[in-house]
Specification:
Largest sheet: none
Shape: rod-shaped
Helix content: over 70%
Structural class: mainly alpha
Number of strands: 0
Distance between the termini: 102 Å
Strand content: under 5%
Number of helices: 1
Order of helices and strands: H
Length: 84
Amino acid sequence: MTASALTDAAALEHAFRAFNEHSSVLESSYRELEARVAAMTAELEATHSARHRELLEKERLSERLERLLEALPGAVVILDGDGI
């Protein structure tokens, strides 16, 4: 093998090594991003479920209050702390 061929082979080997190192870093970063996306998706779903439960509860309370107001025989007067 000539000196030029050795230099070319060494340069090619160096390029492959650098490529493999960068590929490993990118693969690792991608896995970390996938894990973060999965965690954030789970958190978002949990938050969405909690808000949905809260909304349903508020709707039930609203319906109950409406039924109570309809069942009362007279008027309802609401006063604040100042009697207004």
